């Protein structure tokens, strides 16, 4: 149970209601993350834009890489609600049950190229409090595996998003979503 009172659909701004109504109609309920974010329209809209631009929209990184980052960073941050949500989203975006299970086993169990494993390890390192210790040589190592500056930037932006959303869901004690 959340540590603060979460708004119901009727308490949300009309703009948020319009955006979440399809989810409510499809699922019969709204998840706690959506309800928490709807406390503030500005924060809800900013977060929604990040989800759309980082995770849903086709970008330079494949969906599988983006979802691997999502799940791995959320596991690192102990955010069960985000791990569960992104296991589901990964499947909707085309990953198999086996591929999702591999992520849960950690980077070394994921069947992907060594270049992607290095990028994923880099993202986990970037998610930690000592990310300021990352050097140009660390980024160059990822670039030498074939990633462009903009792909590395995208991966780090996704990592930063998950540090943000994991913090919000963990601090306010949101339950695991089904």
TrEMBL record:
Highest taxon listed in the record's lineage: Bacteria
Domain Carboxymuconolactone decarboxylase-like: from-to ranges: 56-115
Molecular function terms from GO: peroxiredoxin activity
NCBIfam families per record: ahpD_dom
Entry protein name: Carboxymuconolactone decarboxylase-like domain-containing protein
Protein's organism: Desulfosarcina ovata subsp. sediminis
């Amino acid at each position: 149970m959340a540590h603060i009172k979460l708004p119901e659909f009727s308490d949300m701004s009309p703009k948020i209601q319009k955006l979440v109504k399809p989810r409510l109609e499809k699922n019969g309920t709204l998840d706690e993350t959506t309800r928490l974010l709807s406390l503030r329209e500005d924060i809800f809209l900013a977060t929604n834009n990040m989800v759309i631009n980082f995770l849903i929209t086709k970008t330079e990184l494949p969906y599988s890489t983006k979802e691997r980052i999502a799940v791995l960073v959320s596991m690192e941050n102990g955010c069960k609600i985000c791990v569960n949500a992104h296991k589901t989203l990964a499947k909707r975006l085309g990953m198999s049950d086996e591929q999702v299970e591999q992520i849960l086993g950690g980077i070394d169990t994921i069947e992907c190229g060594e270049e992607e494993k290095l990028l994923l390890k880099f993202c986990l390192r970037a998610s930690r409090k000592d990310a300021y210790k990352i050097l140009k040589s660390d980024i160059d190592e990822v670039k030498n595996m074939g990633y462009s500056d903009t792909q590395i930037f995208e991966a780090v932006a996704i990592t930063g998003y998950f540090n943000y959303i994991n913090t919000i869901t963990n601090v306010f004690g949101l339950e695991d979503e089904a």
